[in-house]
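Hi D.,

Good news: the full-assembly prediction came through. Inputs first.
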Amino acid sequence: MWLWFSKLGSPRWFYELSSKWLPWLYAAMIVLMAIGLFWALLIVPEDYQQGQTIRIMYVHVPVASISLACFPLMAVAGTITLVWKMKLADMVAKSVAPIGAWFTGLALASGAIWGDQIWGTWWAWDARLTSLLIQFFLFIGVIALRSAIESQDAAAKACAVLAIVGAINVPIIKYSVEWWNTLHQPASSFSMDPVAPNPPEVWVPLLIMISAVYVFFVIALILRTRNEILQRERRSQWVIDLVSREKSV
Amino acid sequence: MKPHRRKKLGIIIFIAVGLSTAIGLSLYALSNNIDLFFTPTQVAAGEVTPGQRIRVGGMVKEGSVEHSQEILEVSFITTDYNHDVLIKYAGILPDLFREGQGIVAEGAMSADGTFVASRVLAKHDENYMSVEVKAALDAAGNTPGMPQGVLQ
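Then the structure:
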């Protein structure tokens, strides 16, 4: 376990291993995305209340759930950076911030489009919407903080602290709809019964869309991290070898 | 784990737990301000001063919606099944507005105890299903508890 942990911390090891993962991830994403989008946009029946508008859910819920996963990931990577000083952890933390900002922005935008149709307004200062907006600003803050500090180690530490503190917002976002009264509806509970609220015909395609977007997220994270590895390790021999090999091909 | 790492991890956990507690307590203290709307029960308890701009949320009471014949004015009762608030509104209602639906109205209480809204928003609940499933459920007479969740 500890050997695996220290191996995973080696950027070179991660770079080589992820080269093997990427083709599989691309294939999985294309298949899941194709099935998920086709099912969600064309097969899912109209909702009894919301009609066609329900299809926005199949985009909104996946991007929102990933935007909520990004901050804890950044906080865990930050903790590893602070405690074990693992190089790879900070590269992941740096790579996940812009992705998290994008997913949070997409969740806000898709939610605004949905809300405009169903609630009658694209924005309300309720607890769910406001806390997610705060998360968006926190991501922007992490990105700005990193580019504001010149020393790479100092930037890594500062961003790790901000990531850990900012992660407190995640349970607030998650439970905002239960702790306070909001315009946003609470989380749905899925039913196995085909004749019940939230039957399988509603949630199976949602699950496929969530996994498709998750795979997309993992691919984006790996690609960014690989970029970061090459940039930071550009003076090490294995990167120089790799580049010269690529050039000669 | 090496002692200095254990110590560092301890400090991080201590700070995270301390900050979460502090934030948790302040959010708890502010919960009245974080709530998006007042419930009819809160209005009945006199938590609202007339003229103050607030939001009131609840379900549209069955059979209470009255449209004016001449102008675009509508009046309806919103309820949390304990207390009612009579709402008057002149404007365009959201598509989802109907009896039994959860709504949030923005406006102010007038002196005579009616709520004059300047905007009405529709809430929707967390139950998604097709028209057919809904019809089957209605036919079986076990419509899922609509109020549940919608009032939260």
